[in-house]
User: Which sequence fits this backbone?
């Protein structure tokens, strides 16, 4: 089934960068937020990988995404002005690019520090080396304006993969994703519709139902089916979740109707009863 | 520096398994909890990887941990009785083992269901196929008793890597880790001490300090140094964090003293002032 999903859905890897995520100091809420956003747009997150602030590690996992022909790689963290913010070095290495001064990024950063200076928040709007560092992007990359903080996001195409680099500060990440990345995704992503349905199955043990469900899954690879035994010990109540993927809503519903009919017949043959609850079960 | 850390510290990968983590429905608190535990024991988490419930994906990331010579791989999720709980299939594939009925695991499961039956919580203590499924472990594996739920954890040695499989339910994961895994780690992990120190540096811009710090890092690979500019715009206040790794506490402190001396001299040469605050800065 997964290969069919991959054919239908645009694929994503999320790569979170920072030792603070690996030693348990920080909970990776950025990855969850991005995964939710991507799923709600109809995309499929294939992997989430957390690595430390190390060029080799970053380039190695990005290259692995290239090998797996992932459509979009989204990195979080490591874009700031300090010397251990090295995400773009890792990206440049993975994509075999040099880091070069990006004029548009520099303009964004210049404008940002001028604003901060005019508001009296900083002593000088001078473009110090560590401020300029944030405008050193892999050759061919495009800066993505950051309305909240100083480091711009970065967009780079490498082969068939698009790489988006976002800052680790949640408000900055969310700002750039919502304002700059989401519109791009909506334009470029494969159009995909999904529809969900739940069935309540009573009186058939999951172990009996499982092989039958496997047959249905083989027959309908575009449908995701998952059984949730309500209490595994009582063995007789199963919430069955189905999600269909297709190019139009009507195709989704037609497929779910077809699958539902087959499952109703199966359950009745096995001596169980079946109903379709309103919405998701609690 | 990282390679030295790897030489000193026992290395870990955490592999979290489940589509619910990839579509943003569930926040990966298990990985954070494990990372905290491992760090506090002196271990080093190298990567956290989230993959879907798919045998190929699971075996592929575990093999990647083998290639990177990771000491311990800890998986979470996918040990339950349902047909999409396929973690052990993925582990077996990665380690080139067959899944076989493990007598000790079966005894644990039998005892568990008998207890539930005697308490009147289930209709029958019968070992149904999906209950027996939880006792099908990779050949050579050892079950780890689960005092909270029904699926035992699993320990398997493959080459120099030890693989630990834990259930995804946090209370079960925490129970097995604390009672069964932690004692093993405490016995087998390389003995390592750490000591932390903070320095407050005033009047030296981070961009000036950074290359000097890089030199110190090269000279003392067993020391982790990270600068936290207090307000990047004011460019003059830096909290410098140092962590030393060594086999004894006295070695840690000696190293930190040596590094501190060098940094004090550097800062004074650059016209700044330095102090050692009590504890971590706020």
Assistant:
């Amino acid at each position: 089934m997964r290969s069919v999903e991959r054919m239908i859905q645009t694929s994503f890897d999320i790569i979170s960068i920072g030792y603070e995520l690996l030693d348990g100091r920080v909970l990776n809420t950025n990855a969850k937020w991005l995964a939710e956003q991507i799923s709600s747009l109809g995309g499929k997150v294939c992997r989430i990988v957390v690595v430390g602030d190390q060029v080799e590690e970053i380039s190695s996992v990005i290259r692995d995404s290239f090998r797996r022909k992932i459509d979009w790689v989204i990195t979080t963290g490591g874009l700031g002005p300090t010397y251990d913010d090295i995400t773009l070095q890792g990206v440049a290495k993975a994509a075999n690019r040099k880091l070069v001064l990006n004029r548009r990024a520099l303009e964004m950063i210049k404008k940002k520090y001028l604003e901060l200076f005019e508001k009296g928040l900083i002593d000088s709007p001078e473009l110090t080396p560590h401020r300029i560092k944030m405008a050193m992007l892999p050759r061919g990359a495009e800066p993505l304006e950051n309305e909240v903080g100083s480091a711009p996001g970065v967009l780079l195409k490498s082969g068939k993969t698009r790489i988006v680099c976002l800052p680790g500060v949640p408000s900055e990440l969310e700002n750039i994703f919502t304002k700059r990345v989401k519109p791009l995704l909506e334009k470029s992503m494969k159009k995909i519709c999904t529809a969900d349905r739940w069935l309540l199955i009573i009186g058939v043990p999951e172990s009996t139902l499982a092989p039958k469900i496997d047959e249905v899954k083989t027959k309908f690879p575009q449908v995701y089916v998952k059984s949730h035994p309500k209490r595994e010990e009582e063995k007789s109540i199963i919430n069955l979740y189905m999600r269909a993927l297709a190019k139009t809503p009507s195709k989704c519903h037609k497929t779910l109707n077809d699958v539902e009919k087959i499952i109703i017949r199966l359950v009745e043959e096995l001596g169980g009863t079946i109903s379709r609850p309103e919405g998701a079960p609690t």
